Amino acid sequence: TYSIKNTLQDNPRLERSIQFFNGLSTWIQCMVLSKMTPKQRAEIIHKFLDVAKYLRELQNFNTCLAVIGGISHSALARLSKTMMCLSSEDIKLLTEMTDLLSSNSNYAQYRKNLSECEGFKIPIIGVHLKDIISLHVALQDRLEYDLINFRKLVQLSIIFRTLNNLQVSVPPVQPNNDLINLLTLSLDLSYTEDEIYELSLAREPRSSVSSPDPASRGMHSSETTNDSSSDVYKKKEQVHSPVFADWAAGVSQTIDIQTIQRHVNAMVEAVFTTYDHDRDGYISHTEFEEIAQNFPFIDTFTVLDADQYDRN
């Protein structure tokens, strides 16, 4: 029905898939922007590039696109100080991933790589949805004399058969349910594009000097550049991610109290399973700091429960 009506109504699984895609990209942006210095932000980008590399090895192109889309989003792409702290290897990997997932020539590089994959793989859902929509628009259901358009049926069947075959493939990894529960709430939290971009401007204002701290690049202060940001930064509307999926834009998690409560309960259980190392039923300040690393802006929605040993 999506290809016919071009709406997610009555397609809850597809809607949830898109929500996950957008939520992951947003979470990645927030994780990077939660760090105060360019070097710290570059370290987070490096970690997510490692994640993208592993997703490529798993042949999970859909989630890989969400990760690279988050990293290359305009809110992060404009952070010149941060980008200058990335290693040449990171820049090379980001460029390769961007080229692989680019929409150029109707996703030619992606389609070539997907066709060469064997076994378990997860395609970019949006690309194949667009294929279905294009066929539906370009070819009529019936021809002259009310004859069925078998050419259209054959081409659609090829796409559907490919997608159906993927569903019976066995993933090469086992899910970590504790980790899933730990991250679900973060991926569902909603931040608008404007809010994220404002945070990006707060981290690296347009008027700031374009070079990173000398210490972060092994340079002396005399070697730093004095170029103003007007020569370096592009305006927001001029910076576009080359891979961010436009088909997934505008879909965000609908706030549902019962769903959030269920996720919170699962997250709390996962937190204690993973971080309550001494199994005393309390989370210490040290343990909480480990948790907070994975949840940007956690202090805005969580209050630390003092460890029993901290109580008077």
From TrEMBL:
<feature type="domain" description="EF-hand">
    <location>
        <begin position="263"/>
        <end position="298"/>
    </location>
</feature>
<protein>
    <recommendedName>
        <fullName>Ras guanyl-releasing protein 3</fullName>
    </recommendedName>
</protein>
<dbReference type="InterPro" id="IPR002048">
    <property type="entry name" value="EF_hand_dom"/>
</dbReference>
<dbReference type="InterPro" id="IPR008937">
    <property type="entry name" value="Ras-like_GEF"/>
</dbReference>
<dbReference type="Pfam" id="PF00617">
    <property type="entry name" value="RasGEF"/>
</dbReference>
<feature type="compositionally biased region" description="Polar residues">
    <location>
        <begin position="207"/>
        <end position="231"/>
    </location>
</feature>
<dbReference type="InterPro" id="IPR036964">
    <property type="entry name" value="RASGEF_cat_dom_sf"/>
</dbReference>
<feature type="region of interest" description="Disordered">
    <location>
        <begin position="202"/>
        <end position="233"/>
    </location>
</feature>
<dbReference type="GO" id="GO:0005886">
    <property type="term" value="C:plasma membrane"/>
</dbReference>
<feature type="domain" description="Ras-GEF">
    <location>
        <begin position="1"/>
        <end position="206"/>
    </location>
</feature>
<dbReference type="InterPro" id="IPR018247">
    <property type="entry name" value="EF_Hand_1_Ca_BS"/>
</dbReference>
<keyword id="KW-0106">Calcium</keyword>
<dbReference type="GO" id="GO:0005509">
    <property type="term" value="F:calcium ion binding"/>
</dbReference>
<keyword id="KW-0344">Guanine-nucleotide releasing factor</keyword>
<dbReference type="InterPro" id="IPR001895">
    <property type="entry name" value="RASGEF_cat_dom"/>
</dbReference>
<dbReference type="GO" id="GO:0005085">
    <property type="term" value="F:guanyl-nucleotide exchange factor activity"/>
</dbReference>
<dbReference type="InterPro" id="IPR019804">
    <property type="entry name" value="Ras_G-nucl-exch_fac_CS"/>
</dbReference>
<dbReference type="GO" id="GO:0007265">
    <property type="term" value="P:Ras protein signal transduction"/>
</dbReference>
<dbReference type="InterPro" id="IPR011992">
    <property type="entry name" value="EF-hand-dom_pair"/>
</dbReference>
<dbReference type="InterPro" id="IPR023578">
    <property type="entry name" value="Ras_GEF_dom_sf"/>
</dbReference>
